[in-house]
Write a structure and sequence with these properties.
Chain A is an alpha/beta fold. Chain A has one domain: 3-Layer(aba) Sandwich (Rossmann fold). Helix content of chain A is 38%, strand content 25%. Chain A has an eight-stranded mixed β-sheet with strand order 1-7-8-6-5-2-3-4, sandwiched between helices. In chain A, helix 5 packs parallel to helix 7 and helix 6 packs antiparallel against helix 10. The radius of gyration of chain A is 19 Å and the shape is elongated. By secondary structure, chain B is mainly α. Chain B has one domain. Chain B is built from four helices and no strands. The chains are: A alpha/beta, B mainly alpha. Chains A and B meet through strand 4 of A and helix 2 and helix 3 of B.
Chain lengths: 245, 86
Amino acid sequence: MARAELYEYQQPRIDIIAEALEALGPVEGRVVGDVGCGNGRYVEPLHAAGACVVGVDLSAGMLASVSPARAGLLAADAQALPLASASLDAVLMMHMLYHVPDPERAVEEAARVLGSDGRALVATNGVRHLAEMNDVWLPLLDQAGIRGNLEDVGLVNPRLTVGTAQQHVGAHFGEVSERWLRSSVVVTDAAPVIRHAASTTGSHLVGERRDALLDEFAVEVASQIRRDGQFRITTEVVFLTATRP
Amino acid sequence: MKIDDAVDAVRADQGASPVLIAVVGEFAGKAEKAAGADDERGAVIELEQAGDSAKVAAEADTGVSDATRQAVLDAHLAICIAKSKL
């Protein structure tokens, strides 16, 4: 929740769910797979739009928070979907590929389970996403000596660049179209930024220093707010859409 | 074969959800693949995982008939038994 809360301060606000539904096109009566569905953020709106939703996530714990009345739920690996070939009309992979050990394999699986003319939507973050927060956060992690080669300690996961995601999607679908959703989060109080940082992997890796690290982060963010009247953070998401030949 | 029976039952069941149809379809696909596999153990483990998903999907599907659900559960059990004999 802390991560989603940050986007309440987005200006202009981007309704990413509405954008995703628009990118998918009409879903009424269609079988739509939400791969990496997590706690089902997209499941309810897809169901409301008339789709027959298949929610897939590796975490059974996450799936437990999704209503089974809204979707068929499968605890499964995106790299080996337990679905027959050509059994879906559309697939969403929203902000999840960078968590998958072999992202290309996951895209290949999405292509396999999609029927002819089926549409895939992949969302991932651009390189500038939350950059201003990371500019403060990562040096603090460096000082704490925990950054090292770990990929997931920043405020965004840099494992998968937009270019690499495009390559993977292009390799299995052919033509890929991209749409950038750029905006800013603007806060005049450091609290939501701190809560976001506190929810990330990096903050949990510092052990006893966690509170001190978050305090240092808060001091720096508050200092920028005092200086500029606000703390402005870039948000940058890209939608990659492709259709199964 | 139990998996064929399950596939037939699901396909014929008007109440079966697209999710169940897709999952049982993949279960059947894995069974076909396992039949000619060099790595029998690996193939059966994959098949068992597909069977587990089919079992969960059948149990969760409120529209499917009891007979269809039982056909899927029987197919799942058959794979569990086959695996135990490896």
